[in-house]
Amino acid sequence: MPASAQQVGTLKPEEHPPMPFWTCTEKGCTKEMKSLAQDSNWRWIHNGQGTNCYDKKEWDTTLCPDPETCAANCHLDGITSDTYASSYGVTTEPRGVKLELVTKTPYGTNIGSRLYLMDTESTYQMFKLKNTEFSITVDASRLPCGLNGAVYFVEMDADGGKLASDGTNTAGAKYGTGYCDAQCPHDMKFIKGKANVLEWNSTLSTPIGKYGSCCAEMDIWEANSRATAYTAHPCNLTGSMLCDGVECGDTTKGERYKGVCDKDGCDFNAFRLDNKTFYGRTSNMQDFDVNSRAPIMVVTQFVTSDGTDTGDLVDIRRFYMQNGKLIPNANSSLAEVKGNSLNKQLCDEMKTVFGDTNDFAAKGGLKAMGEALDRGMVLALSLWDDDTANMLWLDSAFPPDADPATPGILRGPCKKTSGKIAYTRKQYPRASVRYLDLMVGKIGTTSESHRPEEAQGGDEEYGGDDRRLSEQFLA
């Protein structure tokens, strides 16, 4: 029998914060109260009596000499309802949740958060999105350059990897385990029930270990108040996997396109497609088609080849609603790239015009993305900053040393120095994002006419003519 690992701590109970969730049909929307779980990477890991297994970026070498021993010795503890707010900056609201960037505690400082929507106390809500529409209202007004309020789906296991770990993960989804994405992150402290202690590099702002955690990823909304994109990232695998070596596709090793996942993805960023007045933030709401100064209802439709749940995914469409107005997605302003949604033609044309490697097509394109959506994916809500690329790939010039006149280099209006984490954390510790009115249904059913009363309208506290917003967020 394998040693029990990633054990559950008993020093603090887990108290998931509530999250409203609407399921919609042609007859209207039905509300359920779901909940959220913080990712395991943010949690306290100790030996069962309160001695840290991990502290100040380092593993305790006595408790954690190797992956198996560490997992057997260490416990993943709960987060109480008040601690979600006081330690992680996660506060609930009647319509959703608010996440803050910097939260200081007596034990240290937490940066951002990553939360998963729960179905039950011990399983994640699974979404099968082909031939379906997903909507969420986002308030990004308090997110300056360099930050990312992200709403996305990843192909995690519903139980957080308990069954797949062959008994070495006893904590599971209740404690936020099992994360993976198309970047195959190496910073996960536990993967498949084993501690990622080998080759642990604590000299980095975000320490990393030898292994990564890979799976397909569908980015619905990656944004701050100045730039936004939605992106499909297929992978050559089913479910999640622990990667080792070339299969991780590590950019630093020159292996980015040799891995199992498409790290670039096919992205729709209006600014990158030379439509520079579609999305942004100013005090004059008319300056942009979608102005991030006010809350935005983001609607994403997953269109199949034959209009059925079983057809191939062929198009990912987007529109917005703001202040009661329906706003179609931006059209590309590049002559060589046509369209306003993610489909094969637009993805192929972008890769050609931008001179990018078409790893999206190599990894199966929209068809592979649809297959992952069909198997079921978990919803993640997060707020993060970027110590690797300073978020320039989202809101500035990237690569930073490339000629900004080259098509595809400019992704947003932010300065190339704006996303350094030492600056953002010092200047904008109270930066935040709000996620509201989470809805799913058949295509066309989450639109304004079908929304429940309490999920309609603007938000006077954060939108419109709110004079309390600091002018620093307009810089």
Q: What report would you give on this structure?
A:
- The chain has 475 residues and is mainly beta.
- The protein has one domain: Glycoside hydrolase, family 7, domain (1,4-Beta-D-Glucan Cellobiohydrolase I, Chain A, Distorted Sandwich), CATH 2.70.100.10.
- It is built from seven helices and 31 strands.
- The chain has an 18-stranded mixed sheet that branches. A three-stranded mixed sheet has the order 1-7-4.
- A hairpin with a 2-residue loop joins strand 8 and strand 9.
- The longest helix has 11 residues.
- The chain is globular and about 60 Å long.
- The termini are far apart.
- It is an enzyme of class 3 (hydrolase).
- One of its GO terms (biological process) is cellulose catabolic process.
- One of its GO terms (molecular function) is cellulose 1,4-beta-cellobiosidase activity.
Keywords summarizing the entry:
single chain; 475 residues; mainly beta; 1,4-Beta-D-Glucan Cellobiohydrolase I, Chain A; 18-stranded mixed sheet; three-stranded mixed sheet; 7 helices; globular; Glyco_hydro_7; EC 3.2.1.91; hydrolase
How many helices? The count is 7
Extract low-pLDDT stretches: 1-5, 454-475
Strand percent estimate: 25-35%
Based on the structure given, which CATH architecture is correct? Distorted Sandwich
CATH class category name: Mainly Beta
Question: Which structural class is indicated by helix and strand composition?
Answer: mainly beta
Query: What is the CATH homologous superfamily assignment?
Result: Glycoside hydrolase, family 7, domain
Mean pLDDT: 92
Number of structural units classed as domains = 1
- What is the fold-level CATH name, i.e. the topology? 1,4-Beta-D-Glucan Cellobiohydrolase I, Chain A
Characterize the biggest β-sheet.
18 strands, mixed
Radius of gyration: 21 Å
| Strand tally | 31
Helix content: 10-25%
Q: What coarse outline follows from CA principal-axis ratios?
A: globular
Q: What is the straight-line distance between the termini?
A: 58 Å
